[in-house]
Amino acid sequence: MTSSDFNMLRLEAPRDLLQITDGTTPPEQALELANPADWVRTMARQQKQAEKDLRQLTELCGNTIDRTDQRMVPIEEAYQTLAEGTRYVNDQVNANEEIAENWVRTELANTANAYQTLAQDVWQAFLERTDESNQQQICQATQLTRVNDVLTFLAEANIVRGQHLATFQGNVGLWAADHQRKMNQVEAELRLAREEIRRIPPGYPFQGCQEQGSRPQNRYNSGEVRSDHPAPV
C-alpha cells in the first residue's frame, strides 16, 4: 500500500431506510475520491455509521420497525437529511463538478445537525428497549461516542462554512468596490457635462442675430412674397 492510498476515500451511495431495515444493499459502484476535505471524510464515515446503527436498531426490534411509532418520525427525517447531503456530494464527485458554494453555506450545517439528531434519538431508542444494566451502560457509552463524532462533524462543518462565507463576503466587497468606482466615474462625467453646459453663452445659437439688433429672419417677416400667393393690387 502506497502513501497515496491513504489519501483516497471510497464513497458509497447511501441506502434508503427501507433498504436498511430489509438488510439489502443496492448494487451500485462506489466512487474513489483522492485527497478529500476532512468534512467529506467525516460525512461519509458518519453516513455509514448511521446505516449500521439503524440496522442494529432494526435487529433489536425483531427486524421490524413500527413506522407509526411517533418516536421514529424524527429519526427518519434526520436520516433522510443526512442521506440527501451524502448523495449530493456523491453526485457532484461522480459528475466531476465542484460542490456549490451555497450548499456549503447552508446544507452542510443542516446535514451535520441531522446526524446529531439521529445519533441522539437512535441510541435513546436503544436505551428504552434495553433492560439489562450492562447493556444500558454499553448503550450510554456508545451514545457518548456518537456525540463526540457529532461535535467533530459540527466543528468541521462550521470551519468550512466560515471559510466559504469569508470568500463570499470578499467577493461581495470586490463587487461593491467596483460598483462604487463605476458610480464615481459616472458622477464625474455628469459634473463635466454640467460645466460644459454652463460655459455655453446665453442666447446661443441666436447670439449673432441679437448682436446685429435684429431677430431671426424667415420668409414671412422678411418682406418676401411667396410665389403661390399673389401680391395685393
Q: Any overview of this molecule?
A:
With 233 residues, this protein is mostly helical. 65% of the residues lie in helices and 3% in strands. It has six helices and two strands; from the N terminus they run E-H-E-H-H-H-H-H. The chain has helices spanning 17-22, 38-60, 72-94, 101-128, 133-198, 207-211; strands spanning 8-11, 31-34. A two-stranded antiparallel ribbon has the order 1-2. Helix 2 runs parallel beside helix 4, helix 2 packs antiparallel against helix 5 and helix 4 (101-128) runs antiparallel to helix 5 (133-198). The radius of gyration is 38 Å and the shape is elongated. The N and C termini lie far apart (123 Å).
Task: Give descriptors for this structure.
233 residues, mainly alpha, two-stranded antiparallel ribbon, 2 strands, 3% strand
Order of helices and strands: EHEHHHHH
Kindly, what is the distance between the CA atoms of the first and last residues, rounded to a whole number of angstroms? 123 Å
The major β-sheet equals: 2 strands, antiparallel
Percent range of helical residues: 55-70%
The count of DSSP E runs of length 2 or more, i.e. the number of strands, is: 2
Q: Structural class of the helix and strand makeup? A: mainly alpha
Average pLDDT level: 76
Strand content: under 5%
**What form results from the Cα inertia axes?**
elongated
Q: Give the low-confidence spans.
A: none
Q: Number of domains in the coordinates?
A: 1
The DSSP helix count reads: 6
Strand order of the largest sheet: 1-2
